[in-house]
Write a structure and sequence with these properties.
mainly alpha; disordered N terminus
Length: 204
């Protein structure tokens, strides 16, 4: 099994920046996304239920839509941005910072979740887009998107550093580790393989 080839070593790391300031912000404890974004999810649900006065069923449906949209965004970003193969030297350096470092040092426990310096601007960007698309329904959909993102970050950390010895958890762990250690051109879904099946990237 792919996970048997993987030996977790949380101390495996590499310095990416000469600047101590930049280097500090390139490392993130896995609890940070939870501390930042669980309150956002709660507040967006509060706005939807008590200020927008949407029904519980409507909010639940919009929340699930947000999760579904996250799985698609996760797939597209991983496939077309994280695994884009640049030709220029500058492009290769940028790619290493964005995702290449994770494939070269997959055990680095402080580089398994997205740094807030990237996730916060993206959160504002997506909320703005959702507001334009969904109007007053945006908070409920955005809550689902953010919750889906948190599931992605936590599952990504878990697949690399927790046992996950049975059931769907073991299957997800093996699915992602095959992406790392067998073929990184397939298996782009981490929190869900749904879009790998839709776009036929489960295997070659």
């Amino acid at each position: 099994m792919a996970d048997r080839l993987y030996v977790s070593n949380k101390n495996e790391t590499v310095r990416m920046f000469e600047s101590d300031f930049m280097e500090f912000f390139s490392r993130v404890h896995p609890v940070i996304p939870l501390a930042l974004y669980l309150p956002v999810v709660g507040y967006m649900l509060y706005v939807s239920l008590w200020r927008r006065q949407l029904s519980f069923v409507a909010v639940a449906a919009l929340f699930l839509l947000g999760i579904l949209l996250w799985t698609l965004i996760e797939y597209l970003i991983h496939r077309y941005i994280f695994h884009y193969e640049p030709k220029t030297r500058w492009g290769k350096q940028l790619h290493f910072v964005i995702h290449g470092v994770h494939h070269d040092y997959p055990n680095d426990a402080r580089r398994l979740v997205m740094p807030p310096a990237i996730s916060i601007p993206l959160a504002f960007l997506f909320f703005g887009l959702f507001f334009l698309i969904f109007g007053s329904l945006a908070p409920a959909v955005f809550a689902g998107l953010v919750f889906g993102y948190l599931c992605y970050d936590m599952l990504h950390y878990a697949t690399h550093h927790l046992a996950m010895k049975s059931g769907v958890w073991l299957w997800l762990k093996q699915y992602h580790l095959r992406h790392h250690f067998k073929d990184d051109h397939v298996g782009y879904g981490i929190s869900s393989p749904l879009w790998d099946y839709v776009f036929r990237t489960t295997r070659k």
